[in-house]
Recover the amino acids of this structure.
């Protein structure tokens, strides 16, 4: 049987992450969201979102339809990773063919767009 193959990436808060002002955090989050929208529009990113346990070091998960090395490179170009806030863990994932599907959608490019403001 041929399996469908994806890469799951985890966004990990770094122990040495720089402290940011609320304004810097907002700007960085908007830059991150725009980056995710670009990856999705290019056909690499299938799904992404935050992990809601704020006590955990794991802050987000993404599913990409590219190999591990390419996924890591794409996710390492995330502005928050570039700023030293997060690190990336990339893991190969396979499922039986057709076990999962992703519907066409549009990723918001900013927090205000996501909130509908």
């Amino acid at each position: 049987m041929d399996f469908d193959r994806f890469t799951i990436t985890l966004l990990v808060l770094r122990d040495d992450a720089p402290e940011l002002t609320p304004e810097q955090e907002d700007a960085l989050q908007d830059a991150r969201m725009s980056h995710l929208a670009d990856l999705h529009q290019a056909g690499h990113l299938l799904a992404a979102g935050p992990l809601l346990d704020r006590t955990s070091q794991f802050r987000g998960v993404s599913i990409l339809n590219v190999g591990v090395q390419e996924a890591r490179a794409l996710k390492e170009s995330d502005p928050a990773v570039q700023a030293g806030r997060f690190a990336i863990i990339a893991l190969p994932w396979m499922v039986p063919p057709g076990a999962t599907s992703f519907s066409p959608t549009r990723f918001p490019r900013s927090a205000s767009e996501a909130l509908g403001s």
Remarks:
- The mean pLDDT is 96.
- The CA atoms of residues 38 and 51 lie 21 Å apart.
- The two ends are 47 Å apart (CA to CA).
- The helical segments are 22-41, 68-76, 79-82, 111-114.
